[in-house]
Specification:
single chain, 245 residues, alpha+beta, eight-stranded antiparallel β-barrel, 5 helices, 33% strand, globular, signal, TAT_signal, Ig-like domain-containing protein
Length: 245
């Protein structure tokens, strides 16, 4: 009988212990449900660390997505680091340089390309072939380009966006007389007009061409849409455009 009472007492004690344990568990669960969501517990800290890790991966992806030297060269217009009137563009295998009056055009082929440096095989208008090494330091508007084989300047920075002057009405017959480079013609005329003809947004080819066989030059005129209807004279000689007003 004594043993039976002890067993019952033990069972009762166990029941109390279980009941207390369950109550404690319910209290703990209740406190967890009411916990401050801003509490920086270990699980939250671990999640933040994981997010930081993802951020690092994103940075690595952005680093991998950076443009190569040739892509950066071809992505924008460049101007002289010391003289903003000097401009240069490279696109589609055509390299165009201008000092605001004379424009030189060359063809090129990328023979080596990497991060910050590329090599171009440049064929100038007179047939001269040079190996041009281009280096670009910095990114975006802070980039600086250097190439000692360019003809108008060695040092270049990104040109700021500005008002664009459209060159219109140019036909294939005229282009055939001036080396076939419409890009070089557009750059030479638009740059000169934007700097010397205020209010002009367009320069239209007049359709007339003067050929000087002795000087081996071709001259044409363009009329601007400014209030004064300014006329611009464009001469092609020795593989370069010269613009006057």
């Amino acid at each position: 009988m004594e043993k039976r009472r002890k067993a019952v007492a033990a069972l009762a004690a166990g029941a109390v212990a279980v009941a207390l344990g369950a109550g404690a568990a319910r209290c703990a669960a209740s406190r967890a449900d009411k916990a401050d969501p801003t509490d920086n517990g270990s699980e939250t800290a671990a999640w933040v660390d994981a997010a930081d890790g993802q951020g690092s991966d994103s940075g690595a992806s952005a680093e991998e997505a950076r443009q190569s030297c040739a892509e950066e060269l071809e992505s924008r217009e460049w101007m002289g680091a010391e003289d903003a009137s000097l401009r240069m563009t490279a696109s589609g295998g055509r390299l165009v340089e201008t000092d605001g009056t004379d424009t030189r055009t060359s063809s090129y082929e990328v023979t080596s390309d990497g991060d910050g440096e590329c090599v171009l095989r440049v064929t100038r208008a007179d047939g001269t072939v040079v190996q041009a090494t281009v280096t670009i330091r910095g990114r975006g508007d802070g980039a600086r380009l250097r190439c000692e084989q360019l003809q108008t300047s060695f040092d270049w920075v990104p040109a700021p966006p500005g008002g664009e002057v459209r060159v219109t009405g140019v036909d294939e017959e005229y282009l055939a007389l001036v080396g076939g480079s419409e890009d070089a013609l557009d750059l030479a005329v638009s740059l000169w007009v934007s700097e010397h003809v205020p209010g002009a947004t367009e320069a239209a080819f007049d359709g007339e061409v003067y050929i000087d066989t002795k000087a081996d030059s071709v001259t044409a005129t363009f009329t601007c849409d400014d209030p004064g209807r300014s006329i611009v004279s464009v001469t092609w000689a020795d593989g370069a455009f010269s613009v006057t007003g």
